[in-house]
Design brief:
The structure holds 2 protein chains of 2 kinds.
Chain A: H1 10-20, H2 26-33, H3 54-64, H4 66-88, H5 120-156, H6 160-179, H7 182-194, H8 201-207, H9 211-225, H10 228-236, H11 240-276, H12 288-293, H13 304-328
Helix pairs in contact in A: 3-13, 4-5, 4-13, 5-6, 5-8, 5-9, 5-11, 5-13, 6-9, 9-11, 10-11, 11-13
Chain B: E1 4-15, E2 22-33, E3 37-42, H1 48-56, E4 64-71, E5 74-75, H2 81-87, E6 92-95, H3 99-102, H4 109-120, H5 126-139, H6 145-149, H7 158-170, E7 176-180, H8 188-205, E8 208-213, H9 216-222, E9 225-230, E10 233-239, H10 240-245, H11 250-258, H12 273-284, E11 296-311, E12 317-333, E13 337-341, H13 348-357, E14 363-368, E15 371-372, H14 378-384, E16 388-391, H15 405-415, H16 420-433, H17 450-462, E17 468-472, H18 480-497, E18 500-505, H19 508-514, E19 517-522, E20 525-531, H20 532-537, H21 542-550, H22 556-561, H23 569-573
Parallel strand pairs in B: 3-8, 3-9, 6-7, 7-8, 13-18, 13-19, 16-17, 17-18
Antiparallel strand pairs in B: 1-2, 1-4, 4-5, 9-10, 11-12, 11-14, 14-15, 19-20
Helix pairs in contact in B: 4-5, 4-7, 5-7, 7-8, 8-21, 11-18, 12-18, 15-17, 16-17, 17-18
The chains are: A mainly alpha, B alpha/beta.
Chain lengths: 337, 587
């Protein structure tokens, strides 16, 4: 009867039920079906507690937060500007108009022209494009690296001698990357890799940004591995990789989403900083950092527009990230970073 | 009758929440008189704890409270925090559920008790307060109180911590002691000692006591009056004999009927739902062939697991070993239920884990269906995973909150490579089997109550037609009425599907009705193994006897006859006598 290959369907169940007849047995009947003795019913009718699904709840909590709206509106506006701006604007980022060099905003040059005769609006929009791509790309890649290292280290750390060894090796790798003076290495590698493609900036920045996230993910995974549902999966013979993707990642997803969102602004700041000191994005590309590099302190229109765009971008992402965190994890409190 | 010490009138407490207002307590009224013990009984979520926190003034700020609580002429809601603090610990004291988190881990136990004395009696010198702490520890039966007073809470066992909490609670001879599930976290033998101690302490200082509990057995031996609560409202209030012998309300009757009785074999079983369900099923299975002829499902022989105790951070030396499981042997036949009973630390869980690993154990052999687990190939082991499954203790923690229950139940089938249609069909069948509706398959675990979740856990364990299900305390996290339902379902499944159970539990009364055979474990060894009826009627080993006599019996007459004096009166009164200096200040 308990042969694992024996196929039973609902018909068999009802046949079996009829055979042993639990309804005729008042006691089992009452334990299973009696509304008094049965566990509290899942409420079908009222506008009850259960009717709100998790996704709906999250959406409501997120949209209730005014900073979510402000962040989304500013971010959407900046993205639209970055896409449409260079398409409709008459000047390119490297077109020189030396006759108008160092002149303020005008109907032809919306943000003015710098001392090299380059149009600041064109450069800011082009820089915004690059900074956005690098910011998002770096954040996603950082999260991916951190997930890989953190979850593997956390998962294997309880699995006997070899697990502890692998975990130790990965933790030491994290520590190694943490003590390396990353800014020096970035300055060393960045100009060389820029020769190939500006996209190299993404793996380069990500390579020095994943460590702390990985440590946190490792700790979270260690906690989850001890829970009974992961244990249950192990006793069912579920493959460890399936366990990680099906049980562990969904349960830390909220933290990952928050961290990735806030990581975008960190990556943008890192990239613009490097570009500003001349080790980031190089000619023939511009980023917000290189636009800022051409500042002239006595002519505010050369540096205020890109600085405002950069600040607006970072602030809008942080506002969205914090609203997301408040929605996903209401107990964290908005005072904490 | 004298004036009441505590009177609660029309108390209502509600909390605002994301989903609307939650009414935790509604229109609760009761009085407690001097020297009286009132028990508030109810299942989880009935509002019993919230009502007592309201008495202590310990509710969070967000709670909306109405009604009135009067304590010795003070209206509790009109007092500010400072005035309340003067009452707390001096006139009212509280014994909490979890003694580990109720004691501050960074202070010595003696200092914490002395602190309680000195806060309310600043005139007492430090040395005297310290001496008093030792006297109190002595009074509650802690050996070597001098040495123990200078230890930290982690050096105390659970029972000793709860004793220290009681010492703290009676330090200032309060008028009212509130005990919130004081023994829920403790083993049954320790529970019996702590309840005896609490009762003696109450009689000694003549305080009124409010005992909050879900366990009818504990109530029977302790309370003078009983208040039954359900879903934030009072159901019934009466003397202990009225409630137990002639309950008026249906809910009280159900609650009493759902309690499994350790003392009742045949006769009392008719009153207990779970018991009589089991009875019916036992009748069905009367014509089973004798045990020896049935095939063996699981065989454990001389199983041992030793953990080394090491010292030193850099150079680890072994300074000893902990024999968590120390050479145990048992076997389970087809369709049989073996109960593994023991208190915490007896090695039950370690045994389970060793079996579920499906690997060569440290010492001894484990055979499943005649095959030794050490000799399995990877593929055989994967297939065997479907023959032996486990149901965990905590239904909240054992189901992944991010998966709908259909996926949870499908998981083991997916591992075994079932086809999609067959999985769908089986999910429906399994949900029906465990008494849930197939329409609920798309819901998430959080949408179910504890008992329903445990049913999902059982459905998952049944998914691949196992030969043996290991039940790791499957009902200890559930309320009694829910527990009765789950137990009846398990017994029903066993009768109909012919699965074997290895039922691990600390609760003898639960095991009595469901198991065929019982193995009593103590300190990693099986001290007694035999048929259920034999072990219950005629226990051989002294430990089995102790375990049996410690189980609380929900019958006031029986419970009263079993009580013992547990407090040291002389030690409490102290060497200098007449302490605390003056009792007038609190009256």
């Amino acid at each position: 009867m308990t042969n694992p290959n024996d196929i039973r369907g609902t018909d068999d169940a009802s046949a079996l039920r009829r055979a042993t007849d639990p309804e005729a047995n008042p006691v089992i009947g009452s334990a299973v079906d009696d509304p008094d003795l049965r566990d509290t019913e899942v409420d079908e009718s009222g506008p009850a507690i259960e009717s709100l699904s998790r996704g709906e709840l999250l959406r409501r909590r997120f949209l209730r937060n005014p900073s979510a709206w402000i962040g989304m509106i500013i971010f959407a506006a900046l993205v639209l500007m970055a896409i449409i701006g260079p398409m409709v604007y008459q000047y390119g980022p490297f077109e020189r108009d030396l006759r108008n060099a160092l002149t303020g905003p005008s109907p032809y040059h919306w943000f003015g022209v710098n001392e090299n005769g380059l149009d600041i609006f064109a450069r800011t929009m082009q820089g915004l494009r690059i900074s956005l791509v690098i910011g998002v790309g770096t954040a996603v890649l950082t999260t991916f690296l951190a997930l890989l290292v953190g979850i593997v280290a956390g998962y294997v750390s309880h699995k006997g001698k070899w697990g502890a060894f692998v975990d130790g090796a990965l933790v030491n790798l994290i520590n190694l990357f943490l003590v390396i003076p990353s800014i020096l290495l970035l300055m060393l590698f960045s100009p060389a890799l820029q020769q190939a493609s500006w996209l190299w900036m993404i793996p380069l920045l990500a390579g020095f940004a994943w460590m702390l996230t990985a440590r946190v993910l490792r700790a979270m995974t260690q906690q989850l591995v001890r829970t009974e549902y992961v244990e249950a999966a192990r006793f069912m013979g579920v493959n460890p990789i399936v366990t990680m993707t099906r049980h562990i990642i969904p349960n830390i997803a909220s933290w990952i989403i928050i961290d990735t969102t806030l990581g975008v602004s960190a990556a943008i700041l890192g990239e613009t900083g490097l570009s500003f000191i001349g080790f980031g994005i190089q000619y023939p590309q511009v980023s917000l950092g290189t636009v800022l590099q051409d500042y002239n302190i006595s002519a505010p229109y050369t540096w205020i527009p890109p600085a405002v765009v950069l600040a607006a971008l970072v602030i809008s992402i942080n506002l969205m990230g914090e609203a997301l965190r408040d929605a996903l994890d209401p107990t964290s409190g908005s005072s904490r970073i | 009758m004298s004036d009441p010490i505590l009177s609660v009138r029309d108390l209502s407490v509600s909390f605002p929440s994301e989903y609307g207002t939650v009414h935790a307590v509604q229109d609760l009224s009761y009085e407690v008189h001097k020297g009286e013990a009132l028990a508030i009984v109810g299942e989880s979520g009935s509002g019993k704890s919230v009502s007592s926190l309201a008495v202590m003034g310990l509710l969070p700020r967000t709670a909306a409270i109405s009604g009135e609580i009067e304590m010795l002429g003070h209206r509790m809601f009109e007092l500010d925090d400072k005035q309340l603090s003067r009452l707390r610990g001096n006139t009212i004291s509280m014994v909490f559920q979890d003694p580990l988190s109720a004691l501050t881990p960074v202070y010595r136990v003696g200092d914490q008790i002395a602190e309680v004395v000195r806060i309310h009696h600043p005139e007492v010198s430090k040395v005297r307060a310290r001496q008093r702490a030792e006297e109190l520890l002595d009074a509650v039966g802690i050996p070597e109180p001098g040495r123990r007073a200078s230890q930290y809470p982690h050096e105390f066992s659970g029972g000793m911590r709860q004793r220290a909490m009681i010492a703290m609670a009676i330090a200032n001879e309060p008028e009212l002691i509130i005990a919130d599930e004081p023994t829920t976290a403790l083993d049954v033998t320790i529970q019996a000692q702590v309840m005896d101690l609490l009762k003696s302490a109450q009689e000694l200082i003549g305080a009124a006591t409010v005992l909050i509990t879900h366990d009818m057995g504990v109530v029977a031996g302790f309370a003078d009056r009983v208040l039954v609560m359900k879903e934030s409202r009072m159901v019934e209030l009466g003397t202990v004999d009225e409630i137990f012998y002639s309950p008026r309300e249906k809910y009280t009757q159900d609650l009493l009927a759902a309690v499994p009785r350790v003392d009742a074999g045949e006769a009392g079983a008719s009153r207990s739902v779970a018991g009589s369900a089991m009875q019916k099923i036992a009748d069905l299975g009367e014509d089973r062939p004798p045990r020896e002829e049935l095939p063996t499902v699981l065989e454990v022989e001389d199983l041992a697991k030793v953990f080394p105790i090491t010292k030193g951070a850099i150079v680890r030396r072994k300074i000893g070993e902990q024999r968590a499981v120390d050479g145990i042997s048992f076997d389970i036949r087809e369709g049989e239920c073996l109960a593994l009973v023991g208190e915490s630390g007896s090695g039950k869980t370690t045994t389970l884990m060793e079996i579920m690993q499906l690997r060569t154990p440290q010492e001894g052999t484990i055979r499943i269906g005649g095959k030794e687990t050490g000799a399995l190939t990877r593929k055989e082991r994967a297939t065997l995973r479907s023959d032996i499954t486990v149901v965990f203790q905590d239904p909240m923690a054992s189901l992944d909150p991010r998966m709908p229950i259909a996926d949870i139940i499908k998981e083991p089938m997916r591992v075994q490579g079932y086809s999609k249609e067959r999985m769908e069909e089986r999910v429906d069948w399994l949900l029906k089997m465990v008494g849930l509706l197939p329409e609920h398959a798309a819901r998430f675990p959080t949408e179910f109550s504890g008992g329903q979740r445990q049913r999902v856990g059982v459905a998952r364990a049944l998914a691949c037609d196992p030969k043996l299900i290991i039940l790791d305390e499957p009902t200890s996290a559930l309320d009694v009425t829910v527990q009765a339902g789950v137990l009846a379902m398990l017994a029903d499944l066993r009768a109909r599907l012919g699965v074997s159970f290895l039922f691990v539990s600390h609760d003898l009364s639960v095991v009595r009705h469901i198991s065929d055979r019982i193995a009593v474990m103590q300190k990693g060894r099986i001290v007694e193994l035999g048929d259920t009826e034999e072990v219950f009627t005629n226990p051989q080993h002294p430990y089995s006897k102790e375990l049996l006599s410690a189980v609380p019996i929900p019958d006031p007459e029986v419970a009263r006859s079993r009580r013992r004096e547990a407090i040291d009166r002389k030690a409490f009164e102290g060497t200098s006598g007449g302490f605390p200096a003056d009792r007038e200040d609190s009256q």
